[in-house]
Design brief:
heterodimer, A: about 160 residues, Beta-Lactamase, five-stranded antiparallel beta sheet, 6 helices, about 45% helix, about 25% strand, B: alpha+beta, six-stranded antiparallel beta sheet, about 50% helix
């Protein structure tokens, strides 16, 4: 099972974190710092897999963003790379050639998409079509709501 | 600022932009504090906020939290959002809870009702949201509140597929928290049959769940095997167009395939039914065949997905460890990957080959790739790949290639990365000892290790070389000469001084005849290093000097001068001061006879197991490469060294340095894994084809008939080691339980399985142990036994405990077979044959077995076993030198039974004839049974 997934930038800024095991916040921060430093120090052609404590780390860089997953000894490294790729594809499809800024400004969407792809650290739906369908259904529900907040945000509320 | 999708919270986007525009960390903190104050006042204010505003502020808090700041308010507002009738508000509420709420928070009780409502909603999107939240938090409270609803959702005919998927994984998450959540009975079969579901997404999710359930209760879920094989078979034979959106870059359902292959690895063998096994093997062959087909796409995604399935199939083949053909094919396939362009594939191939190297079927096939692997170790750009290559070389090493591999590892060590040096040193030391046929080679290797990587040579390593040199006469002169030469280097490592000091102190006399290494030269050479060394090494050297006084009286005065120096006699270090003054006094007042007695050559160390491997294992818990197959016997130590006296072994170990404050890394006392992990000792008496797969526990009770110490059981979770002592009809066993995981094992209770009736023959008493075995810790348990009369079989222990909330049971047979109570009896040919005849008079007293050799007939190995069996091996009595003749007395409380034995190997027929004669029939039969199993 996947224990956590981290998205961070080349500058080492954490953009998204998803934990499938419960850890205290302090430990999460420590793990994040340690892994970001380790991975940023690695050269481009190096292997995408690392042994780290009793876990395996699988990471891949897409443009300015690093995607990093921690999996257990029994899990399959190559397929974890493809979980990352599938997630990137989904973000790309949803945002239309996704960039780091999309994820910063719409972080909640990035979470919602991930929750459709993975649940409890296991892959839930591998079909791209089905995940996008689920997200579209969510968006449809939203659009049916009246955008009453529009006025507030423009100081008219 | 990019476009915002959906309903878009403009206020949030503005805030995020502000943060991004901050020029400094201080500015950012200032902006955040301002926002926090604003949100706080909004939440506290009299004006009731509408849903949109709450959502916006909760979302801002979430963003602030994700930036790494602590959030201590807003939870109640988030909880309120859950009951909103607007989906977007509800969704943000759930997100906040999932990200910020800890499993034990009081808030959980408040949200359970909201989740219940959504779970009962007719809108599947709401149900999914609720399930995701339960899975994200996954606490015990959740398990209690929803333990009934979720299994129903999972198997109900009305549930939509997408909800079923979430329900399966949600149940899995809760099952990991709370094992009792899964209802048994008819549910089992309904859950298993999800493997037949039409919807691939449901099957994929369900397979994860079933995998966890199988791990807890393999018997109950056995039915999943044939279904999993059928499903797998359908996938691997499908064309990539068949599965539509579940085909990933031309690979049909890679995720499901991998999960099914993983599921099958829970069973040994993966399929009992021959038909099912046949179909599974066909699947595996198909996967191997497909690997040879030209790729359907140049994209790395295609190759990754395809190879992910291939590697998992190979894992299953290795786990199965019975189809020689598949194992060799797997090995060839991996061999191709070793020179692949993709670093990832090379890395995984090396790792996977490590496992193949431990199978007797594929060990030879792996060795064919030795050159490429050596190149990988030297040339790979990535240290983690080099590390894998080192692991593989270690695993593939055997008698035939040991010299070459060790040499290559030594060469590489000169330039190796600091991060892997220590581990490499341990590996080289282990291999050199294990496969040494010539101990001068072993000595060379270890001295080279010290020269090349002295800083990384731990105490265990240099202790070990000294033990081995002391125990082997033939190598002592060579060791003295070599170490003397090594010490002449202008800068030599302190560890070299330690080894040199010890060896010259014991065996310097063997090279003193040569003028170039006369006593005085030896002394001056050592003493030239003295001032550069730590107090511990100096103390060792002082002991060497007093030994020199005994060996070489001609340099006594010279040495006494050194003892008298203020820096020694008045040293600030109490240990040095004491040694200097005591040794000085000893050299003054003791006669040469007394001196010779006091400083006599060290007695041989009892043959004990190497502790180096334990260090290696401790360094890398959870992942230690194995080097443990077939016939890897090291040269057998002289039979006279063979002893069961554990205490003596402990004592002499501690005395090696002769320091009053023992060094910290003492193998026996301080390392918490200690003897327990010490499996290298196995090489002395191990049956020749013990093949162990990495994941499955090693339980081979037979092996302990001829040996008293070692690892009784080992899995990923627990290791059980034993040390035993026997005196007459009494036995004392120390069992060592080591927790290999990073969590505690609780309710840890070992009990003896031995009926009352049997206890009347062999009484067994076990001390109680603490019920909790902490992570990484080891506990010891004493077992006392008394042989009252003869018995068959041996008692076992049942160890039950909980690991991660899952109950576990392990049954292990104790090394308490009847032969353990043998006392070897020496006798000459005449009296042997007289007794032999005497005992052969009636059929009741003898037992005979003729059997085919189940292992290659290695007489040297057989000899070791016979000695381990406990009787006296009588040489030169039988006219045929290949035959073994033994005598011994079995001690019981009620009587003593004399026992004679003859084992006749017939090499041509590959058969043995074993005859046992004793004064009691049941004894003859049992002894015959026990020993016949060994060959």
């Amino acid at each position: 099972m996947m224990q956590f997934m981290l998205l961070f930038s080349r500058q080492g800024k954490l953009r998204l974190q998803k934990w499938y095991v419960a850890h205290p916040d302090k430990l999460k921060k420590k793990i994040t710092r340690e892994l970001i430093t380790t991975i940023l120090a690695r050269k481009p052609k190096m292997c995408s897999f690392l042994e780290w404590r009793d876990l395996k780390i699988v990471y891949k860089r897409y443009a300015s963003l690093y995607f990093c997953c921690a999996i257990e000894q029994d899990d399959n490294e190559l397929l974890t790379l493809e979980v990352i790729h599938r997630y990137v594809e989904l973000l790309d499809k949803y945002f239309g050639s996704v960039c780091e800024l999309d994820i910063i400004f719409n972080f909640e969407k990035a979470y919602f998409i991930l929750d459709e792809l993975m649940l409890g650290g296991e892959i839930q739906e591998t079909s791209k079509k089905n995940v996008l369908k689920a997200i579209a259904a969510q968006d449809l529900l939203q659009e049916e709501e009246t955008p009453q907040g529009f006025f507030d945000d423009h100081g008219l509320g | 600022m990019p476009a915002v999708r959906g309903d878009g919270m403009r206020g949030l986007a503005v805030f995020i932009s502000d943060i991004r525009n901050c020029k400094s960390k201080e500015a950012e903190i200032k902006r955040i504090n301002k926002e926090l104050a604003n949100i706080r006042s909004k939440f506290k204010g009299d004006k009731t906020l509408d849903g949109y505003q709450k959502k916006k502020y909760v979302c801002k808090l979430l963003f602030i939290f994700l930036l790494g700041h602590d959030i201590d308010f807003g939870h109640m507002e988030a909880v309120n959002l859950l009951s909103s009738n607007k989906y977007s508000e509800k969704q943000i509420g759930y997100l906040f809870i999932s990200v910020l709420v800890n499993t034990n928070s009081e808030l959980i009780k408040l949200i359970i009702q909201s989740i219940k409502n959504d779970l009962a909603s007719r809108n599947p999107i709401h149900v999914s949201l609720a399930l995701q939240c339960i899975a994200n938090i996954g606490s015990r409270d959740m398990a209690e509140a929803f333990g009934n609803d979720i299994p129903k959702l999972l198997v109900s005919g009305d549930t939509m597929d997408v909800v079923k998927q979430s329900a399966a994984l949600c149940l899995l998450r809760l099952f990991r928290t709370s094992q009792d959540i899964i209802p048994g009975g008819e549910w089992t079969s309904r859950i298993i049959h999800l493997l037949n579901d039409q919807h691939m997404g449901v099957v994929t999710a369900a397979t994860s769940l079933i995998d966890a359930l199988v791990k807890k209760n393999p018997e109950e879920y056995k039915g999943c095997v044939s279904l999993a094989v059928s499903r797998l078979s359908r996938i691997v034979t499908a064309s990539y167009t068949d599965l539509q959106d579940y085909t990933y870059y031309f690979v049909p359902a890679p995720w499901l395939s991998v999960k099914l292959l993983r599921l099958l690895q829970n069973y040994t063998p993966p399929a009992e039914d021959p038909g099912v096994r046949g179909r599974l093997n066909e699947c595996l062959e198909t996967i191997l065949n497909k690997a040879q087909e030209p790729p359907k796409s140049k994209k790395v995604q295609h190759s990754n997905a395809k190879n992910a399935v291939l590697f998992e199939a190979i894992s299953l083949i290795i786990h199965n460890d019975s189809e020689a053909n598949l194992l060799v094919r797997a090995c060839n396939q991996l061999g191709q990957f070793l020179s692949n362009r993709e670093t990832n594939l090379r890395y995984l191939a090396l790792e996977s080959m490590c496992h193949l190297a431990t199978s007797e079927f594929s060990h030879e096939a792996v060795k064919k790739h030795q050159e490429v692997v050596i190149l990988s170790m030297k040339m790979e750009k990535d240290v983690s790949v080099r590390q894998q290559a080192v692991d593989l070389l270690y695993a593939m090493c055997d008698k035939s290639n040991a010299e070459e591999i060790v040499q290559e590892m030594l060469n590489y060590l000169e330039t190796a990365d600091y991060s892997i040096r220590e581990e490499m040193v341990l590996k080289v030391a282990i291999l050199a000892e294990k496969y040494a046929t010539d101990y001068t080679w072993y000595v060379d290797v270890i001295l080279n290790l010290i020269r090349i990587a002295g800083d990384y040579v731990s105490e265990e390593v240099w202790y070990r070389v000294i033990q081995i040199v002391i125990n082997r006469d033939e190598v002592q002169g060579y060791a003295a000469k070599t170490v003397f030469e090594a010490l002449q280097a202008p800068a030599c490592h302190e560890n070299m001084v330690k080894v040199g000091g010890y060896i010259l102190g014991e065996f310097g006399n063997l090279i003193a005849g040569d003028q170039r290494s006369s006593p005085s030269v030896q002394f001056q050479l050592l003493h030239s290093k003295y001032h550069l060394c730590s107090p511990m090494t100096r103390a060792l050297l002082l002991s060497t000097y007093i030994k020199f006084i005994n060996l070489f009286p001609e340099i006594k005065a010279q040495i006494q001068e050194v003892f008298k120096q203020d820096s020694n006699l008045r040293s600030a270090d109490a240990e040095l001061q004491q040694r200097a003054s005591e040794y000085l006094q000893l050299s003054v007042i003791a006669s040469s006879d007394v001196l010779a007695t006091v400083l006599e050559e060290m007695p041989a160390f009892p043959e004990r197991e190497s502790s180096i491997l334990a260090v290696l294992k401790k360094k890398k818990p959870g992942r230690v490469p194995e080097n443990d197959i077939k016939e890897n016997k090291s040269p057998t130590p002289a039979a006279t060294n063979h002893t069961n006296d554990v205490n003596a072994s402990n004592a002499s170990q501690a005395d090696l340095l002769g320091l009053s404050t023992p060094p910290t890394a003492q193998p026996h006392n301080s390392s918490n894994t200690g003897v327990l992990l010490d499996v290298l000792g196995d090489i002395y008496t191990k049956p020749s084809n013990n093949v162990s797969s990495k994941t499955s526990p090693i339980v081979d009770p037979k092996k302990f008939v001829c040996k008293n110490n070692g690892v009784l059981y080992e899995s990923n979770i627990l290791q059980i080691g034993v040390k035993s002592e026997f005196r007459q009809n009494l036995a004392r066993l120390s069992l060592f339980y080591g927790n290999k995981t990073s969590t505690s094992l609780v309710n840890f209770v070992p009990v003896v399985l031995w009926s009352e009736e049997q206890s009347a023959q062999l009484s067994v008493q076990m001390k109680e142990v603490e019920p909790t075995l902490e992570a990484g810790a080891q506990i010891q348990q004493m077992v006392n036994a008394e042989c009252i009369e003869d018995y068959s079989d041996a008692p076992s222990i049942l160890v039950s405990f909980w690991y991660n909330g899952v109950p576990q049971k392990v049954i292990v047979r104790l090394p308490l077979t009847l032969n353990k109570f043998f006392e070897p009896t020496e006798m000459n040919g005449e009296s042997f044959f007289a007794r032999w005849k005497n005992l052969g008079n009636t059929n009741q007293q003898r037992s005979q077995k003729i059997f085919k050799a189940s292992q290659p007939m290695d007489l040297q190995a057989a000899r070791t076993k016979m000695i381990g069996f406990g009787m006296q091996l009588l040489d030169g009595i039988d006219p045929n030198p290949d035959n073994f003749v033994c005598a011994g007395i079995i001690h019981m409380r009620t009587q003593q039974v004399g026992c004679l034995l003859r084992l006749e190997p017939n090499k041509n027929a590959q058969m043995y004839r074993l005859t046992v004669r004793s004064s009691k029939e049941s004894v003859s039969v049992e002894i015959c049974e026990l020993l016949a199993d060994q060959f």
